[in-house]
Amino acid sequence: MDYQYPVIFVHGIQGSWLKNQYPVNYQDEVYWTGIMRKDFEKLYLNTADTSIDRDFDKFIFAHQAVPFVYESIAGELREEATKYTYLFTYDWRKDNRISAALLGEFVKLVLKKAAIHYQQEDPPREAPKKVALVGHSMGGLVIKWYVTQILGREATSIVDKIVTIATPYRGSLKAVEALLPGARNFFGIESQKAMRSASRTLPGVYQLLPSWDDAVIDKKSGKALSIFNHGNWQDNLLTKLREEYGVEFFQRMLDDAKGFTDRMKEDYSPELAGRFYCAYGGGSETWRQVTVDREDGNWYAFDEIKKAGGEDKDGDGTVHGNSSIVKCAKTHKDVKQAIELGGQHAQMPNHGGVQDFVVSSLKKNEYIAPFASPR
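Above: the chain sequence. Below: its structure as tokens.
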């Protein structure tokens, strides 16, 4: 039997094409596809207001979800859960709070559209009053902000179920790498050095900074350092920032990100108990802790980074257990299966086990309790 309500899938960071919609003829105005085209020089946001693009002659918007990551799971949901499955695409560069507000408008549009089509079925069905939300990676943060901070106590009247896949509820050390050496992007694909500078203007990257207590520590004393204090970042980065945007801008971005991540620690309301499902990767060594050499210009020792291993080897290469695993009041075999999945963070939606988990979670009458304290 089909799932009762429409399903909205929300992709992760770097998960949508970005396209300039300013010109009339914009055949060559796609700037980001995730694989074939990555024009970092066009992706900068304006440091005076990061809700708009840096360049005056560009209005860049999300164009479509990246097919090689999301085409398979979208097809599976339409085939096995409900044909009323929609992909919400957003500009992953920007503040997740902006994306969450846009998600709210998209939910209204989906419900309006589905209501008409439900009535046109044979036999007609009652118009849906709720949706299910499925998010991959940062998409889960967009969903959580929408549900907890925008809907609040009204959430149960609009959202039936929530399923997240490898969502970094407490961030990822890969976000630190993106702002410092910037050698790789969040999909694990080699990127150009130009991404370093562009990333420093993107709120979406800052809002993925790790928020667990010992993510960054002083190499000599072993004491934790706040990633949200610009004084704990590499001296060479601060020197570069003074030339590019100013250290004040950097600290403003860090302060804003801390405000966001602090709210991400809040639980869903009790009214949403029993409506949340969480899938996450396992079996892959994942960055857990980086040391900072205070005596050498606050140098981040990525070559000596501590990885989650042994019994705690439950990450996907980008997001590890301390960030993505949620203790649930109840469990069943599907959760255990999802926990043991290995592989790249970006490829989680393509994994057959994950797809089965999402579909079965939508159809189940038994639930997993939401958001107890992460271990």
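Residues 327-339, 366-375 have pLDDT under 50 and may be disordered.
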